[in-house]
Amino acid sequence: MLSPYTVLDLTDDRGELAAMVLGDLGADVIKVEPPQGSSSRRMGPFLEDAPEPERSLHFFAFNRNKRGITLDLTTEAGRSVLLRLVEKADFLIESARPGEMDELGLGFDALREVNPRLVYVAITAFGRDEPYADFAASDLTLAAMGGSMNLQGDPDRPPVRITVPQVWLQASAEAAVAALTAHARMLQAGQAQFVDVSAQTAMVWTMMNAMVAHAIQGADFNRAGSMLQLGTITLPLVYECADGYVVLVVNGAALAKAVYWLVEDGIVAEEWIEGEDWLTYDVRLLQGQPVRYGLEEVVEANRRYALGHTKQELLERGLREGVTIAPVNTVEDVARFRQLEERGYWLTAPLPDGRQVPVPGVFARLTETPMTVRRWAPKLGEHNQEVLGRTLGLSAQEIAAARGAGTA
């Protein structure tokens, strides 16, 4: 799909997924690392028996479909080579601190003079020129200032962030979409485009309908833990089952079918089936109308039913009968998820220590322009000769100078 295009990836751990998405879509991505390697090469978890620069599983996970080169952009030689690459590129994605690329003479204004059709994407914590632009930031603070932590956690305890860091992954995904949108604009306008991606702003999108709650209802949503607040009633969302937990919304549509399950397991009497208009049960509760079976009684019956079945049993029955039940999956559960297996989602990758392991595949299956993994994460400087030597025609001495080989 993007095979005619070249992407220069100057990001570190704060943006590598963006270029990987474009690489999965077929673009030729050239990852430009400093002589010592990207900071993500020093992020765990680590392989014990792999060469030092190649030990990071974090780097391996987010840098497939990229060729890798090293340039010392603090030197004139390194910057000169990058400018030659920019001449041939369609996209440049970077995650430097605000103003750093301008200080190097490699900011948007300088690069669009070199390539007037370039799409330049900058990923930062708060945006390039916002009031907080120079503030320090972490996954925790950006998740909080993006608003999502206001919704996560129990109401009587401090807010929490998602366990596995997500902020820069969310920002990277938004950056990939923004890059393609800007490219479409470049084709219309015929001039270079600058994209300013704020990780804090990207996190706002993770709140879904909570973003517009105040505008619609005059008040923000507040965190409620595993409970769902519907007007004057509160429903539990998470139920313990035989081997973990599932999410189940006990509303009319679900109850109309689940009541048969409760009878089948002997949890409630058969008279429950005709004893209520289950399709309107929750609506009548909200309106204060009389119901035959109280909410606590209904919730308790569903709690007992869930305890008697595994996550997989509940999921499969819900899928068969149209009742939304979501298992609270562990990583092991996801790895064994039957839908992913049957769709051939998992790929086999050669880790830097020589092992072959299953890894996540591409994010979509396209019929006309299928995505593939053409190469796994590059070794440090693996494609220096291929890109700098054969493509740009640099001599060995020029490559060494551009890489900062004498001072690395």
Helices, by number, come to 18
Question: Residue-averaged pLDDT, rounded?
Answer: 94
Q: What form results from the Cα inertia axes? A: elongated
Write out the strand line-up for the largest beta sheet, numbering strands in chain order.
3-2-1-4-5-6
Give the radius of gyration. 26 Å
CATH class of the largest domain: Alpha Beta
Largest sheet: 6 strands, parallel
Give me the count of strands. 13
Number of domain units: 2
Query: CATH fold name of the largest domain, please?
Result: Rossmann fold
Question: What share of the residues lie within helices?
Answer: 25-40%
Structural class: alpha/beta
The CATH superfamily title of the largest domain: Crotonobetainyl-coa:carnitine coa-transferase, domain 1
Enumerate the spans where pLDDT stays under 50 for 5 or more consecutive residues. Answer: none
- The assigned CATH architecture of the largest domain is 3-Layer(aba) Sandwich
Strand content: 5-15%
Distance between the termini: 38 Å
What does this entry show, briefly?
The chain is of the alpha/beta class and 408 residues long. Helices cover 37% and strands 15% of the residues.
Name the descriptors.
408 residues; alpha/beta; Rossmann fold; formyl-coa transferase, domain 3; 2 domains; six-stranded parallel sheet; three-stranded antiparallel sheet; 13 strands
Describe the secondary structure blueprint for this structure:
Blueprint lengths: L5 E5 L5 H9 L3 E6 L23 H5 L4 E5 L5 H13 L2 E4 L5 H4 L4 H7 L4 E6 L14 H7 L21 H23 L3 E6 H6 L8 H5 L9 E4 L2 E4 L1 E4 L2 E5 L3 H13 L7 H4 L5 H6 L8 H13 L3 H11 L3 E3 L3 H5 L2 H5 L4 E4 L5 E4 L24 H8 L4 H8 L5
Parallel strand pairs: 1-2, 1-4, 2-3, 4-5, 5-6
Antiparallel strand pairs: 7-8, 9-10, 10-11, 12-13
Helix pairs in contact: 1-7, 3-18
